[in-house]
Amino acid sequence: MLRLTLAGLPLTLTALCFVTLGSGCSDSGPRSCRISGEVTIDGVPVQEGAISFDIVDLGDVPSGAMIINGRYEAQLAPGRKIVRISASNPDPSLGPDEVAPDIVPEKYKNEPLEIDVQTSGTHHFHLTSD
Fold it and tell me: What SS3 class is residue 103?
């Protein structure tokens, strides 16, 4: 059982202020951008996959989202991002321990895409096999 006495109240309130200020709850905290868009391969929406936005600049944090029916939504800090996409076609014939092969063309794995996010908005990724 927690007992709070009047003698400990100033210390408790001071600690609470530090926790609140340090948690980024103020309006002057770090900005974040909400982005969304389509992910297709050769014009066909990616049914299932993942998209990650890896850091380019120091002090940034990576972010990611699921791709479902060719669409994704992500919340991330502004700045340059390296975009990595993985995707597979659902295959009901696979067993529980089997993984469907990645269908993203090899060129996007060897040379990932890069974007610069400064505001919330739309970023589409239309990948091609050729």
Answer: coil
Q: Distance between CA 51 and CA 72 in Å, rounded? A: 8
**pLDDT by residue, tens only, the chain of 130 residues:** 433 334 443 433 333 333 333 333 224 556 889 999 999 999 999 999 999 999 887 767 789 999 999 999 999 999 999 999 999 888 888 888 888 889 999 999 888 899 999 999 999 999 999 7
* pTM: predicted TM-score of the whole model, two decimal places: 0.71
The matching CATH number, chosen from 2.60.40.1120, 3.40.920.10, 3.10.450.50, 3.40.1400.10, for 31-91+100-127 is 2.60.40.1120
C-alpha 19/C-alpha 30 separation (Å) is 16
Query: What is the β-pairing status of strands 33-41 and 44-45?
Result: antiparallel
> Measured between alpha carbons, how far is 83 from 87 in angstroms, rounded to an integer?
13
